[in-house]
Design goal:
The structure holds two protein chains of two kinds. By secondary structure, chain A is mainly alpha-helical. Chain A has two domains: 55 residues, no CATH class; 238 residues, MetI-like (MetI-like fold, Orthogonal Bundle). Chain A is 72% helix and 0% strand. In chain A, helix 6 crosses helix 9. The longest helix of chain A has 32 residues. Chain B has one domain: MetI-like fold (Orthogonal Bundle). In chain B, 75% of the residues lie in helices and 0% in strands. Chain B contains 14 helices and no strands. Chain B is globular and about 80 Å long. The mean pLDDT of chain B is 85. Classes of the chains: A mainly alpha, B mainly alpha.
Chain lengths: 315, 295
């Protein structure tokens, strides 16, 4: 739909007049949008401008604009540091593990819920599985550490079965698994919602026709449901690849302790630690820029792919 | 209802399906039930692992301790204030951004949208963000938790999409032709027709405020300003340290009490969620749907 006063390009004068008229007509909109714009500049673009300290030796006297310029010193320092590969490995390992394990549970749950015949049962399952999404990260980590503490229920179970108690929270080898599984526990119900709505949009006549032709439920899932939620799944999967370097600050930081540092130290937590605790402002910012730029590129690439694959770009 | 003889494979399917969903239900519910039951049990039962899903040796000392704990109550109060003020700021600013961007012949709309979308996909690193808050003099104040995140671009896009697609444009256009100005169109027509989306946004923002930890952790330094999440974390940490030091009988008695206290703290921290959950459940699904339809 086009606005009423459609202008033909050849009438340039008319066009300019219309522009002015439109601006005059909507002067209040400019007034309204001014405050959000101020917000955007002060709280979003100022820090981006402030990111130039990655190219300077930041000191408090010189601040953002007058600290000595050092070029790419801090970027080189990061790429050459022994931390680089360890951090990249931990970050990518954690992300990929999370993506791979996170794909299927919501799909399975959504399909299962789609075929429940007793309504209240389906509703109950959905309501309960959906709830953990709203629990704060602090409390999720609290629940996890209580369940898995040396005197917690899981270790009691292991001991009753004749095993040795495991110090889950302090075991570097288990960190990724704890992180990923607690994420699956928390988010499967929520992530299923989007698939449930995709399944609800499937044409019921397809199912009826298939049933008439003698298809059983397994076949209907295989040939009707799965193909119709595929585009959604692909998009979500591709999009999650765009955030591969910027995973969960908060949760990793909360799960981190001296014992599991070998596997729990990721780029985000390193940026925090050397920046705010270690006061190496320029170095930390350089790593942060690296992270943001890689993410930006990934997101653009991923968006292009999603565009090609499913004909729906997300940006 | 159609009554048909079900084929064997379908019968197997329904059995598998029900079992699968039962397992899902139990996996999610068991830890939650165990936390609640443990928080109401006697310390010795908890330490010996006798509590499953029902309290053993009924005991509410832990809750009494919580309600006499000053810092927890202060944290609760602070979190409520920050959430209410923060959500109001969020909603007002989000509407102020979303409405102009939803008007089709608003010149400058594309540029402004691009400015918003850019900050969604390129975030400034931690330190420049921190220094910015510091330079603005907001450190250790409530506004450090509210202003930097005043507009979530994602939520703004949801609102804009709703204004564009769910409110008949012709209606607004004819109101404008009748001499109704943009502000009156917004206040008298658009907002009353957007109650459902506003409810979703309020929920999104309020839950994000209530649950957020990191901002409060880095920006606040005075204890009397801490949010509930920070206080919860501090208590969990300090009691963990206490537990590790326990050697004598008296100390391990204390450690057992603390164990129960931790369970109670988890329940205490979730109370607002439990109260709001039915409401959340109703509106959130709608939000996910609207969010998945992009504009």
């Amino acid at each position: 739909m086009k606005p009423k006063k459609t202008i033909r390009p050849e009438h340039k004068k008319q066009h300019a007049k219309n522009t002015i008229r439109s601006i005059k007509r909507h002067w209040q909109l400019y007034l309204i949008v001014a405050l959000p714009l101020v917000y955007l500049i002060v709280f979003k673009y100022m820090p981006i401008i402030g990111s130039q300290i990655a190219f300077r030796d930041y000191n408090f006297k010189g601040g953002i604009w007058h600290s000595p310029f050092v070029g790419l010193k801090y970027f080189k320092m990061f790429f050459q540091s022994p931390q680089f590969w360890r951090l990249m490995g931990n970050t990518l390992g954690l992300s990929v593990y999370g993506i791979v394990l996170g794909v299927f549970p919501p799909i399975i749950l959504a399909i299962a819920l789609n075929y429940v015949r007793v309504r209240w049962f389906g509703k109950t399952v959905q309501m309960v599985t959906y709830m953990p999404y709203f629990i704060s990260t602090v409390l999720i980590v609290g629940i996890l550490s209580q369940m898995l503490s040396l005197t917690g229920p899981v270790n009691h179970l292991i001991e009753n079965l004749g095993g040795q108690a495991i110090h889950f929270m302090g075991e570097p080898k288990l960190f990724k698994t704890l992180y990923v599984f607690s994420d699956v526990w928390q988010k499967t119900g929520y992530n299923a919602v989007i698939y449930i709505s995709a399944l609800a949009a499937v044409d019921q006549e397809l199912h009826e026709a298939a049933t008439v032709d003698g298809a059983n439920i397994w076949q209907r899932i295989r040939y009707i449901d799965i193909p119709s939620i595929m585009p959604t799944a692909v998009i979500l999967l591709i999009m999650s690849c765009g955030h591969i370097l910027t995973i969960g600050y908060e949760k990793v930081l909360l799960l981190q302790n001296d014992l599991n540092m070998a596997t729990s130290d990721i780029i985000s937590t390193y940026v925090y630690r050397i920046g705010l605790s270690g006061m190496q402002y320029s170095y930390s910012t350089a790593i942060g820029i690296f992270q943001s730029v890689v993410s930006l590129i990934l997101l653009l690439v991923v968006n292009k792919i999603a565009d090609k694959v499913a004909d729906t770009s997300l940006i | 209802m159609k009554r048909k003889v079900m084929s064997k494979s379908n019968r197997i399917f329904y059995i598998v399906n029900t079992v699968l969903l039962m397992i899902c239900l139990l996996l999610v519910a068991m830890p939650i039930l165990n936390v609640v039951a443990s928080s109401l049990s006697s310390p010795s039962a908890v330490i010996r692992g006798q509590v499953s899903f029902w309290p053993k040796g009924w005991n509410i000392d832990a809750y009494e301790e919580i309600f006499s704990n000053r810092s927890l109550l202060t944290g609760y109060k602070n979190s409520i204030i920050y959430t209410i003020v923060g959500t109001c700021v969020n909603i007002v600013l989000t509407i102020m951004a979303a409405y102009p961007l939803s008007v089709k012949d608003f010149i400058g709309r594309k540029v402004i949208s691009a400015l918003f979308i850019f900050v969604m996909i390129f975030t400034a690193p931690l330190i420049p963000t921190y220094l910015n808050v510091k330079n603005l003099g907001l450190l250790d104040s409530m506004w450090a938790l509210i202003l930097p995140g005043a507009i979530s671009v994602y939520n703004m896009i949801i609102a804009r999409t709703y204004f564009q697609n769910s409110i008949p444009g012709e209606m607004l256009e004819s109101a404008r032709l009748d001499g109704c100005d943009d502000i009156r169109v917004l206040v008298n027509m658009v907002l009353p027709l957007s109650k459902s989306i506003l409810a979703v946004l309020v929920l999104y923002y309020a839950i994000a405020h209530w649950n957020s930890y990191f901002d409060a952790f880095i920006y606040l330094s005075s204890e009397n300003k801490f949010t509930l999440q920070v206080v919860l974390r501090n208590i969990m940490n300090s009691v963990a340290a206490l537990e590790e030091m326990a050697t004598t009988a008296e100390q391990s008695m204390r450690a057992a009490n603390i164990e129960v206290l931790k369970y109670a703290i988890i329940v205490f921290g979730s109370i607002p969620l439990i109260i709001l959950y039915p409401f959340v459940q109703k509106h959130f699904v709608k939000g996910v749907m609207i969010g998945s339809v992009k504009g």
